[in-house]
């Protein structure tokens, strides 16, 4: 559905100097019906990527294909027609205060010249679809933040797009409302079959809703793949951000080991649960206690980052030799393990 090939955007430096490479040879494919997350810190290239996807920026090199149509190669009426295949949802819905929720939803249809009767029917359908029944005649000042975002989502769906681009759609919402909006987007994907591109800096959003994820850094793709694969790859840069490790308690009389694990389908000995880490330690005459950890189940696969306190059976810290053997064993089982800094 969305295919980016060698997407590159270079901006000339104001007043001369070195040009700014905002996007540097990005290759990415998002399948139809997927919810794909784009994450990255400020300056990673996320905003430029959105502008290239919507045709607001022409890439310096490469192609931007939506359902086989190269947006980058279009101009004028053809580009405007292609943009109708792409709905947009923003962090702030920026509704027109003088219009009701229904009239805000219908605004893009009005601009497109859709007749009043057909427009009213589509708006009514969208009001029900996003759960705004009974609020369609309210003005923005009479709506909650979550309801305003529902209006924004409905407006983005008004032209029946194939792709919905969501740019930080929950950043301004409280946690409970965020969960409701994410559930709505997932439900809309399931019911309408649309492809969703979710631009966000919130890893909780990625864990909650995305099927796949891409990390951008300095305009390049650093890591990309199915969410379960990315989260369970302890060597990848996204794993530690998706599965953060809470601080461990202090004053522990033991050797403390950090362990990142996720079942590796290509390794029959791979560790799949935190309990296995404890059992393996017993083979080296040590007792392992989980003193801190974050464990998530993503796409049916347990992924975790834990800290283990290792002691001998007599409660003395495990020996240097025993620790080294334990760490080597874990490495052979796909675990990234190292002794924690004291």
What tags apply to this protein structure?
alpha/beta, elongated, six-stranded mixed β-sheet, 2 domains, 32% helix, 342 residues, Rossmann fold
Report on this model:
- It is built from eleven helices and 14 strands.
- It has helices spanning 46-53, 76-83, 101-111, 116-129, 145-157, 175-192, 203-209, 227-231, 239-242, 274-282, 320-332, and strands at 2-11, 20-30, 35-39, 61-66, 69-70, 86-89, 163-167, 195-199, 212-217, 220-226, 255-262, 286-298, 301-312, 336-339.
- The N and C termini lie far apart (49 Å).
- The protein has two domains: 2-239, 3-Layer(aba) Sandwich (Rossmann fold); 243-339, Alpha-Beta Plaits, CATH 3.30.70.260.
- It is of the alpha/beta class and 342 residues long.
- Strand 9 and strand 10 (220-226) form a beta hairpin.
- The chain has a six-stranded mixed beta sheet. Strands 2-1-4-5 form a four-stranded antiparallel beta sheet, with helices on one face.
pLDDT < 50 runs, ≥5 residues? none
CATH class of the largest domain: Alpha Beta
Largest sheet: 6 strands, mixed
- What would the CATH topology of the largest domain be? Rossmann fold
Question: Could you name the CATH homologous superfamily of the largest domain?
Answer: P-loop containing nucleotide triphosphate hydrolases
Give the tally of β-strands: 14
Q: Within the largest sheet, what's the order of strands?
A: 6-7-8-3-9-10
Distance between the termini: 49 Å
Tell me the domain tally: 2
Order of helices and strands: EEEHEEHEHHHEHEHEEHHEHEEHE
- Coarse morphology: elongated
Rg from alpha-carbon coordinates = 25 Å
On the 0 to 100 scale, the average pLDDT is: 90
Strand content: 25-35%
Class from helix and strand fractions: alpha/beta
Helix content: 25-40%
What is the annotated CATH architecture of the largest domain? 3-Layer(aba) Sandwich
Q: Total helix count?
A: 11
GO biological process, one term: amino acid transport
Keywords: Amino-acid transport, ATP-binding, Cell membrane, Membrane, Nucleotide-binding, Translocase, Transport
Protein name: Methionine ABC transporter ATP-binding protein
InterPro entries: AAA+_ATPase, ABC_transporter-like_ATP-bd, ABC_transporter-like_CS, MetN_ABC, MetN_ABC_transporter-like, P-loop_NTPase
């Amino acid at each position: 559905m969305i295919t980016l090939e060698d997407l590159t955007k270079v901006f000339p430096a104001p007043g001369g100097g070195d040009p700014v490479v905002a996007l540097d040879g990005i290759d990415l494919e998002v399948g139809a019906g997927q919810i794909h997350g784009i994450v990255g810190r400020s300056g990673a290239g996320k905003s430029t990527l959105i502008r290239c996807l919507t045709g607001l920026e022409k890439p310096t090199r490469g192609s931007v294909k939506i359902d086989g149509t190269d947006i980058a190669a279009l101009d004028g009426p053809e580009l405007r027609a292609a943009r109708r295949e792409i709905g947009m949802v923003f962090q702030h819905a920026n509704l027109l205060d003088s219009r009701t929720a229904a009239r805000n939803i219908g605004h893009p249809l009005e601009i497109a010249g859709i007749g009043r009767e057909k427009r009213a029917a589509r708006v009514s359908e969208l009001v029900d679809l996003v759960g705004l029944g009974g609020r369609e005649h309210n003005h923005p000042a009479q709506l909650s933040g979550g309801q305003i975002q529902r209006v924004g989502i409905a407006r983005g769906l008004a032209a029946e797009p194939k792709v919905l681009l969501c740019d930080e759609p929950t950043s301004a919402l409280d946690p409970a409302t965020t969960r409701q909006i994410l559930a709505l987007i997932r439900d809309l994907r399931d019911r309408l079959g649309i492809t969703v591109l979710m631009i966000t800096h919130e890893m909780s959003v990625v864990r909650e809703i995305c099927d796949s994820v891409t990390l951008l850094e300095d305009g390049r793709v650093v890591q990309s793949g199915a969410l379960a694969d990315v989260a369970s790859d302890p060597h990848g840069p996204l794993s530690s951000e998706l599965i953060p490790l809470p601080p461990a308690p202090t004053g522990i009389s033991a050797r403390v080991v950090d362990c990142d694990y996720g079942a590796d389908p290509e390794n029959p000995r791979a560790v799949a649960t935190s309990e296995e880490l404890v059992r393996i330690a017993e083979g080296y005459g040590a007792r392992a206690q989980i003193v801190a950890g974050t464990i998530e189940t993503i796409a049916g696969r347990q992924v975790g980052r834990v800290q283990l306190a290792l002691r001998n059976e007599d409660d003395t810290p495990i020996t240097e030799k025993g620790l080294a053997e334990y760490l080597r064993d874990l490495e052979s089982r796909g675990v990234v393990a190292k002794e924690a800094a004291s």
